[in-house]
């Protein structure tokens, strides 16, 4: 296998289907049902092709139940030990962790994570063919040790910040490098990420591209006006939409400054819709309230639109917001290949985003969007203005459309089968 090769397109299938143990610290549960929607979709599609069980770590430390709703670990106490999500069995292991470990003490959390998985080893033996660590750190490091205890091969999957930020910390890089060197394969969701995995220690011949997909039934070209009416969004004017974690690292403050600088162009208003939740949501709501107080009735005719913070929404509602918008904006400081960008392309909506991670791998400037440097509100504002003024060619979006989740899951299944059984179908050593 070579970097950048989308496995599954040219290879023959295996007679045996791999039994996959998926190890992750970020997965939807009863308390956080909207968490990591892309992983949920890929897993559901994979489970229709082979047996999959999820070992999803829940952060735990002594006294966590006393914290109640004040902290995330306190809220997660209510998550059941066993569950089923989209037909996939999920075991929620309680994994100890060191709160606020930071860069220096971060290596402590990998062995603590493994300690939370150890009690499950007896019931896991003999039931799986391959282990997959779903994030580079600490998931992949803990999954590597767990796989060795079970006598199984393992694969590593990386997505974004785990590669571009955390794995580059000097304190954890040796642990990440060790996990990558021994993995049957290291999976990236973009070409730049595959290259980053090789730089971190993955053997080049075992670093592989498997692109994320989208739900094509939800994300497709649709009537903009109908979607706006359904969502109760302004019918008059243009709409710019942000979808994601509302945080500093997602560039939310640069976005607010860029939007404010758009000003009035003497024509139609431009509205900003923020879909998502996070630590900076209060700042967004304050900006929205301030704008509403300052906006005169005539502003609606003069191009000064509103800021609308609608909070986190299920995937079906995100798809309707994508249909309602004129463009997607994502000014992140660091990214992998964000699924919201793929979903915008599938919905034939242009993307204004930062030139980071795998975004340049999927957005073609001038054809499907515009790219700007991170942390540059001025460049972001100019790109938004230019994108709103352009006439975009829908044929370009059809050509750039990402794979479906079914196609993505099939590529992943073939890769995991190779990791489990080898090229010739025999059990891997």
TrEMBL record:
Gene3D superfamilies: Glycogen Phosphorylase B
Stretches assigned to the Glycosyltransferase subfamily 4-like N-terminal domain: 41-213
A Pfam family recorded for this sequence: Glyco_trans_1_4
Signal peptide: none
CDD domains assigned: GT4_WlbH-like
Alphabetical list of InterPro entries matching this protein: Glyco_trans_4-like_N, Glycosyltransferase_grp1
PANTHER family, per database record: SULFOQUINOVOSYL TRANSFERASE SQD2 (PTHR45947), TEICHURONIC ACID BIOSYNTHESIS GLYCOSYLTRANSFERASE TUAC-RELATED (PTHR45947:SF15)
Name recorded for this polypeptide: Glycosyltransferase family 4 protein
Provenance organism: Sorangium atrum
